[in-house]
Amino acid sequence: MLEVQSVSKSFDGFRAVDDVSFAVPAGAIVGLIGPNGAGKTTTFNLIAGTLQPTAGAIRLGGRAIEHEPAHRRVAAGLARTFQIPKPFGEMSVLENVLVAARAQPGERMLANLFARASVRRQEQANIARAREIVAFVDLAKVERLPAKALSGGQRKLLELARVLMAEPRLILLDEPAAGVNPALLEIIMARIEAINRTGITFLIIEHNMDLVARLCGEVIVMAEGRVLGRGAPEVMARDPRVVDAYLGGAVA
Ligand SMILES: Nc1ncnc2c1ncn2[C@@H]1O[C@H](COP(=O)(O)OP(=O)(O)OP(=O)(O)O)[C@@H](O)[C@H]1O
Fold first, then answer.
1. Cβ distance 43 to 19 under 8 Å?
2. What average pLDDT score do residues 131-137 get?
3. Between residues 10 and 118, the one the model is more confident about
4. Where in the chain are the domains?
5. What is the Cα–Cα distance from 133 to 72, expressed in whole angstroms?
6. CATH fold of the domain at 11-77+168-251
7. Alpha carbon distances (Å) from 211 to 5, 31, 80, 214, 238
8. DSSP 83-125
9. How far apart are CA 115 and CA 111, in angstroms?
10. Average pLDDT of the chain to the nearest whole number
């Protein structure tokens, strides 16, 4: 589904991502872990298209995307969430999900003029789908509230709903467990599992090892911009290079 090949990114000569290669098979949930500053978020930004790589290739479903703008990658089936969700605070939960729809008939002026009925049907279909997704992530009771009224954990669920609305094939999740209380974390993990069972692939940055151990068949470990290793979470957690990288990070 996703291939990252010899990708590097430098900021003023500093290699935040240094010759990174890995692949994420279709249908998998793969973790991307490593100490602070390892280059995980930069790697996400390179895949999503908010940053351009200094070198290397990125393929989604076999198609080269490293030079495509972010919105084309979304259209190709790539979605991402952020460590700190940024919903439109004044808009309702439902509206926040609705604006993430790929088909926005109201934005096509000519279509509006000539095919009002079909535009209205598409809008109704989008609203119905947004409602379903909001219910799926357990936010139906708060769907009319402004997004700014949600707790941190509910905002993570809203982010999940927004990416689902874009009908992705691959979802990049940036720290879905950060700042989430245990009850909501359980819901988030169950929903990720349910979405994955429908065939959607995940790459997840996460420091919470409970989530990683439960959801991720494999983890890719990064440190200092490079890939240290890859394997089952319980195996990588015992790998001396991985232990060293985390301890190095703790004392640095
Ligand atoms: N825009 C930028 N300009 C300069 N340096 C940057 C920029 N973005 C990231 N870096 C540096 O690149 C390195 C990797 O950062 P990155 O955020 O990718 O790490 P991370 O693994 O996601 O860390 P964390 O777990 O703390 O989120 C860090 O040293 C960071 O300071």
1. no
2. 95
3. 10
4. 11-77+168-251, 85-165
5. 23
6. Rossmann fold (3.40.50)
7. 27, 10, 18, 5, 17
8. SS----TTSBHHHHHHTT-S--GGG-HHHHHH-HHHHHHHHHH
9. 5
10. 90
Are residues 49 and 1 in contact, defined by beta-carbon separation less than 8 angstroms?
no
Tell which residue, 71, 76, 111, has the closest CA to residue 1. Answer: 76
CA nearest to 85, candidates 24, 6, 173: 173
Nearest CA to ligand 1 atom 4: 11
SS3 37: coil
Q: Looking at residue 252, what is its pLDDT?
A: 42
Is the CB of residue 40 below 6 angstroms from any atom belonging to ligand 1? yes
According to the model, what pLDDT value does residue 116 have? 72
Q: What is the pLDDT of residue 108?
A: 59
- What was the ipTM of the complex prediction? 0.94
Give the confidence band of 5 by pLDDT, cuts at 50, 70, 90.
Answer: very high
What is the C-alpha to C-alpha distance for residues 45 and 34, in angstroms, rounded to an integer?
16
Ligand 1 lined by 151 (C-beta under 6 Å):
no
Residue 163 has pLDDT above 70, yes or no: yes
Q: Which of 207, 175, 172, 177 lies closest to 190 in space, CA to CA?
A: 177
Among 4, 12, 40, which is best to mutate for testing ligand 1, by the most ligand atoms less than 8 A from CB?
A: 40
> Who has greater pLDDT, 118 or 94?
94
Report the separation in Å between the CA atom of 42 and the middle of ligand 1, taken as the mean of its atom positions.
6
